Amino acid sequence: MTSQPDSDPGLTASLNDTRSVVLVEGISDKLALETLARRRGRHLRAEGVVVVSMGGSKSVGRFLDLYGPLGAGLRLAGLCDAAEEGDFVRGLERAGLGSNLNRAALESLGFYVCVDDLEDELVRALGVEAVEEVIAAQGELGPLRIFQRQPAWQGRPREAQLRRFFGTHGGRKIQCAPLLVDALDLSRVPRPLDGVLHHV
Predict the structure, then answer these.
(1) Which residues form the OLD protein-like TOPRIM domain (predicted)?
(2) Rounded to the nearest 5°, which phi and psi values hold at 30?
(3) CB–CB of 177/134 below 8 Å?
(4) 27 vs 158: CA distance, rounded Å
(5) Which domain holds residue 180?
(6) What does the pLDDT look like over 133-178, one tens digit per residue?
(7) Which residues of 6-21 are buried (b: 16+ CB within 10 A; e: fewer)?
(8) How far is the C-alpha of 34 from the C-alpha of 45, rounded, in Å?
(9) Which residues are registered as beta bridge partners of 77?
């Protein structure tokens, strides 16, 4: 099979020896799943599993056409935020993978939805203190405290502050996602992440 472009600049997702493709919205999701797979003792590439960052949920239809039953015919799975669930449902239905898909039907296809988003899942699984330890290790505790003192965020739940903080600086989600997964107790892994990996 030929190589097809991943949406990450400069990267390609080779279809040679690939049996499964996991579709995710962005690079932070890709890194989180790959880090979790490593911690679970899995070698995704050796297993023929490729995690593809699509550059946003609006591209899911194109990637389903490329890798799904009308394209390469590979086993599919995916991970998305709650706000983008509709994009995934519409894409899967257009690709002929179901109709009137609800959350349970999505999961039977290997597509899992984060409650809010990946960062929310990881913050809840780790707890505030552990997340702040990861942030402190990156030298970012000062910026976090400044952010928490902003009028719009003062007094808000610390979990909500942390989730928003990851999105306030370009690259912070990408930098922190694998570090947060590395800090997880493997008995407390967010269900959507484990669900995707179990499917492939």
Answers:
(1) 19-71
(2) -60, -50
(3) no
(4) 25
(5) 119-186
(6) 999 999 999 999 999 999 999 889 999 999 999 988 778 999 999 9
(7) bbeeeeebebeebebb
(8) 10
(9) 22
